Structures are given as structure tokens and as C-alpha cells.
Amino acid sequence: MNDEHYYDREQSQVKHRILERYLQAFAPIIGSRYHEIVYVDCMAGPWETRDAHLSDTSFHKALSVFRECKRRGRCNRVRALLIENDPEKYPLLEAYGKKVKDIEVVTEPWDFNEHVQDIVDFAKQSKNSFPFFFIDPTGWSEARINRIRPILQTVPGEVLINFMSFWVKRFLDDPRKPFGELLGKDVDRLRSLQGDELDDELVNAYAARVREEGNFSYTCAIPILMPDRDVIHYHLVYGTRDFKGLEEFKRTEADAIPYMHELRAMAQRRHDQESSAQGFLLSPSETYRERRFRDLNQRRKANARAAVIRLLTSKKSTTYRDVYQEAMQYATVIEGDLRQWLHEWQSTGFIRYENWSKGQKVPHADTIVITLGALS
Ligand SMILES: C[S@@+](CC[C@H](N)C(=O)[O-])C[C@H]1O[C@@H](n2cnc3c(N)ncnc32)[C@H](O)[C@@H]1O
For the range 306-314, what are the long-range contacts, defined as Cβ-Cβ under 8 Å and sequence gap of 24 or more? Predict the structure, then answer.
């Protein structure tokens, strides 16, 4: 965890952990259903790397996951397209790609803005393949819906997009910037918001557009905080058409959130040690300072709980799968939260389960939830 390559850019360490953890689940599942996985890193870097072997880059993390999956015989063929338009960085990417022998890697010095259709064509080169697109720009402009629409509409396929909310917030009031193409018709309403409400609504608006334009069944967003400031730097927005994808991404989120807090606590301790000669009796997690995430998590949990109550009240009888998918689309809400609410409602007689089999410990997707009274 304590990796010096990521000092003062711990947000990238969290981003890479999310990518890696999700692909570890994705690769064997997709590998069992499709002949080929296509991985596209639309803005690959290397970006702010400190390791001569480029181990602290998104493409290295992703290719390592696919390599291991192939080694274990859990997927057949993997093709990867890695794109970087910076003429100083591209040669490093190209040299890295040439050394990879066990995965078909193509590198291109493309400007993403001019090659979206080429990217889709690459993904669709062979039948029976499933592409995963990682769109990770330095600003917000490349993530505009009109720019990425052909990628969103590639079926089958999934996307992970870095939504640079910090920069969007900073420039939102500038009428010359084309925010309508990012956020839709709602821009004027969004411009009237402030603080936490603006944070929440910006990413909600963007994720909703990704879902609609890509006809995705689910989108989720994980907030990534700056390491040294109590500020959301960006959100990783994920889109899938598959319930299994939703489950695995939420498991990834449940893993990544405590990881992010631990990294931030260690970064804070490092900075405290640099500015003070005194020793520290308490551990970094005991002195960890943070408000932004906690507040966001409380808001999201309240929203998700209210949505689940509405669902259970309107239906009287529903499946755990329906309840799960309702709750899990709220950022930072994890399955443990949902199970806790259901347990509380079950023990106070507001709900009961049907078709609960002997020895079953937790609700399954097809477990039926019956609403017995007014929930609160
Ligand atoms: C935030 S970095 C991400 C790097 C990589 N995904 C990672 O996590 O290790 C964004 C990279 O995209 C490149 N980039 C920015 N705009 C681009 C564009 N229009 N086309 C291709 N690459 C671009 C930048 O030079 C930079 O290396």
C-alpha cells in the first residue's frame, strides 16, 4: 500500500486500484462468455510515472490483470489499444507496447478527439468480442457526450470515465465553455447550485446522460478525493448493461473506499511529519481528518434508503435483486448498508422474506421481500 511511486498523487493510486480490482472480476466473467476481450485505454499516458518499468500506470495495471487471467486459462484472447497524444510521452508507451508479447497490444499517437470512430472500429474488428473503454482525460472536454457517443453506443461494451468534477465546478460559470455537451439541458439549473448540492448534482447529471445515451442499464460513480485537501477531485463513472457488472463494480467500490481513506491518512501523516519535529503517538487513521466524504456518504445513504422504502411500499412484494439495484446506484452506498436496513425492518416486523432456504445466511438475488407495514 505504501508505494512511494504514488506519493502526493494518491488519487491515481486509488484510480488504479479501482481499475485493477474491477478488471480482475471482469476478465474471467467476460472471458467465459466471449472469445475475445478488447481493452482500450483512450488516454493511456504514461502520466506522472515514477517507475522505470511503468508499473504505476493504468495500462500496466490492466495488462497485468489480463496476463494473469490468460495464464490461469480464464480468458482466451485479449487485444489492447493504448492511445496517447503527447509527443514526449508517446515513445515510452510505444516502447512498452513493443515489449509485450503475450497480449496483442496496439499503441497509437492519436488525438482522441479525432479518432473516436477508429477506436470503435478497433473494438469491433472481430465478432464475439467484448470491449472495455477507459476514458481518463486530464480535463473535462474529452468526456463530452457528443464526443464519446459512438463509444457509449458500442454494444456489447462497458465504460469507465473519469469525470473531472473539480475542473467542471471551477469553469461552470463561464458561458463560453460548452458545458451543455457535457451536462445536457440542465446546465442553467446546475449553475444556480452551490457547495455539496452542486457536487452531487453535477455527477448525477453526467452519469444520467451516460446511462441514457449509451442505453446502459446501470451507471455508478465513485468519488475520488484529493490526497491533501478535503475536496472531491473527480468521479469515476462506470456504465454497464449487465447486473453482474453492477455487482462487481459495487464490490470494487466497497474495497476502494477504505483503501482511499487509508492512503489519505498516511499522506496526511507524512505532511504532518514534514511540518513538525514532534513524534506521533496515535496511528495515521486515528488522526485522519475528513468531512467531505462522510457528508456525501450520509446524503447518499439517506437518498438510497428513501428510494428503497418507496420501492418496497409501492410493490408489497419484490425481489432482493430489484431492491439491490435500486440502492446500489447511489454512490458510496454498499451492500452492507442495504443488508443492515433490511435486517432492521425485518426485526421490527415491517418486512419478511419468502423462499428463504434452510441454511441461507443472506438474501439472494431471487429472494422475495414482502412488505408488511409502513416503513420509515
Ligand atoms: C490523467 S492522464 C491518465 C493516464 C493514465 N490513464 C493513468 O491513469 O495512468 C491523461 C493522459 O491523456 C493524455 N491526453 C490528454 N488529452 C488527450 C487526447 N485528446 N488524446 C490522447 N491523449 C490525451 C495526456 O497527455 C495524459 O498522458
Answer: 308/338, 308/341, 309/375, 309/376, 312/351, 312/369, 312/371, 312/375, 313/371, 313/374, 313/375
**Residue 167: half-sphere exposure toward Cβ, Cα within 13 Å:** 15
CA of 50 to the centre of ligand 1 (A): 16
Q: Distance between CA 178 and CA 301 in Å, rounded?
A: 32
Average pLDDT score over the chain? 95
* Domain carrying residue 109: 4-266
Residue nearest atom 16 of ligand 1, based on CA coordinates: 137
DSSP class of residue 57? S
pTM: 0.96
d(CA 295, CA 332): 11
What mean pLDDT is predicted for residues 84-111?
Answer: 97
Whether 188 and 311 map to the same domain: the answer is: no
At position 295, the amino acid (one-letter code) is D
Tell me: do 297 and 250 sit in the same domain: no
73 in a structural domain = yes
* Cell numbers representing residue 88 in the block: 514526449
Contact 175, 132 (CB under 8 A): no
Q: Band the pLDDT of 226: cuts 50, 70, 90.
A: very high
Nearest atom in ligand 1 to 142's CA: 19
Ligand 1 centroid – CA 347 distance (Å): 51
